Amino acid sequence: MTQRRRQHAVFACLAAVALWPLVQHALARQYHLNPWKLGGFAMYTVPVPPVAVHVLEVEGNELSLLDPTAWSAAARSRYVEFQRRRHAIGQWALPRALVSQLERERPAGDGFVIVIQRFELDSETARFHVHEDRYIFPRNAPP
């Protein structure tokens, strides 16, 4: 490798290290990724955001909150895995595998609603607010 190529490689590495925190911060804000992940400096801008995952079963016009501690080991495992992934990669983690497991184990209902709540710090008011995402999975819907 020539001296000029080495200089370009060093410059490219330094530029990547300098720009990555900006990219990571933008990803964390846009897709609700955990700012403490991906090795940027956005982790220093907010506390670790808790994520709550609620699963509701639809039966006619009624919604009933399901208790994950009463589920089978396989369903609890899918629930914990989804919660962990949602905490780490935000909106890129989708609950389809969890719902598929629940559909196999609970065939009687009309579907499921997954509600994800995440506390976020509002930089303008310095107060927390709740960001909520809802996923609706009617029974026998196409994947």
Work out the helix count: 3
Quaternary state, please? single chain
- Whole-Å distance between the termini? 51 Å
Q: Give the low-confidence spans.
A: none
Mean pLDDT across every amino acid position:
84
Structure commentary:
The chain is an alpha+beta fold and 143 residues long. It has two domains: 1-46; 49-143, no CATH class. The protein contains three helices and four strands. The protein has helices at 3-31, 73-89, 96-105, and strands at 51-59, 62-65, 111-122, 127-138. It has a four-stranded antiparallel sheet with strand order 2-1-3-4, with helices on one face. Strand 1 and strand 2 (62-65) form a beta hairpin. Helix 2 (73-89) packs antiparallel against helix 3 (96-105). The mean pLDDT is 84.
Entry keywords:
2 domains; alpha+beta; single chain; 143 residues; 3 helices; 4-stranded antiparallel beta sheet
SSE layout and pairings?
Layout: H1 3-31, E1 51-59, E2 62-65, H2 73-89, H3 96-105, E3 111-122, E4 127-138
Quick synopsis:
This protein is α+β, with helices and mostly antiparallel strands.
